[in-house]
Amino acid sequence: NWTPASFINETVEKLKAQIGDGKVIMALSGGVDSTVAATLVSRAVGKNLYGIFVDNGVLRKDEFQQVLDIYKQLDLNVKGIDAKQLFYDGLKDKTDPEEKRKVIGKLFIDVFHDEALKVEGASFLGQGTIYPDVIESLSVHGPSATIKSHHNVGGLPEKMNLSLVEPLRLLFKDEVRKVGLELGIPYDLLYRHPFPGPGLAIRILGEVTAEKVTLLQDADALYTKGLKEAGLYDKVWQAGTILLPVKSVGVMGDERTYEFTVALRAVTSVDGMTADWAHLPYEFLANISNEIINNVRGINRVVYDISSKPPATIEWE
Ligand code: XMP
């Protein structure tokens, strides 16, 4: 019978047999699947795992460092690449959501390829593919372009002649999480909300700038912390903040302000295909609104999104 411990033992043995003393390159995102897959590979081959984690400038506040710290704690051989400026330059003047996604996807592939080519003699590419991804890629419609965009590592396997290493191919998400817990991966990482590959770039409506990212990161961090403290984080499927391209008048002390608005989004859902807006308590919303407006300079108004999917989507872009 299946247990996380038996799965780990068997998988590590299989990985050892498959990889031998080869080198495995892998893109890590800080997400559940890539972290669990990398930890299994690392148990099998140690420092012959060459993980690459890219800071694309649109991660959550402090996320890059926090995730690198966790990788270190798990003894994973991962290189963090600060590519923030490259992404901000690429996103300059881009306002169309799909165009923003394309820029981020392309730059990620560029950065990842550059780094991967530095790993001499690599023969494997590790991936956190799970069973639902396999099914989806077999469907007549092919893999959905948006949802899987952060798994896309471009034509690297062909270019470098790499074989795939996919230790989670037969697992469902809940099994991946159980394996992760058994491997000692922190609960918070394993049970965090889904976060889109293009990150905060699609939660900043219109042009993305470093300044707007900082504003949104600050507001988002207060919202996430508030949800956790109120015991609401695990009750919603996904939550996030959206920076609207709208300035409005406010008042602070004797001063008139003219600043940005953030929308708070929280949904309940099973798989993200349909979703209801979460009925968060008014008291909680009132506290978060005050927290954000009092602590994030540049935001003077907070609204709550009460739209369900369909016809709205979870993200605003
Ligand atoms: P929507 O906005 O379509 O989102 O209701 C459904 C789920 O998909 C996520 N999402 C994305 N994930 N790249 C991703 O990796 C994307 O471009 C992307 N767009 C949406 C969204 O966060 C939600 O979980």
UniProtKB/TrEMBL annotation:
Write out the residues that bind ATP: 29-35
List each copy of the GMPS ATP-PPase domain by range. Answer: 2-192
Keywords of the record, alphabetical order, are: ATP-binding, Glutamine amidotransferase, GMP biosynthesis, Ligase, Nucleotide-binding, Purine biosynthesis
> Which EC number(s) are documented for this chain?
6.3.5.2
Q: Does this entry carry the keyword Nucleotide-binding? A: yes
- Reaction catalyzed: XMP + L-glutamine + ATP + H2O = GMP + L-glutamate + AMP + diphosphate + 2 H(+)
Give, as one word, the top-level EC class: ligase
Q: In which pathway does it act?
A: Purine metabolism; GMP biosynthesis; GMP from XMP (L-Gln route): step 1/1
Which superkingdom, per the lineage?
Bacteria
Record-level Gene Ontology MF annotations? GMP synthase (glutamine-hydrolyzing) activity
Q: What does this protein do?
A: Catalyzes the synthesis of GMP from XMP.
| Assembly description | Homodimer.
Any idea what this protein is called? GMP synthase [glutamine-hydrolyzing]
Q: What gene codes for this chain? A: guaA
User: What range of the intact protein is shown?
Assistant: 196 to 512 of 512
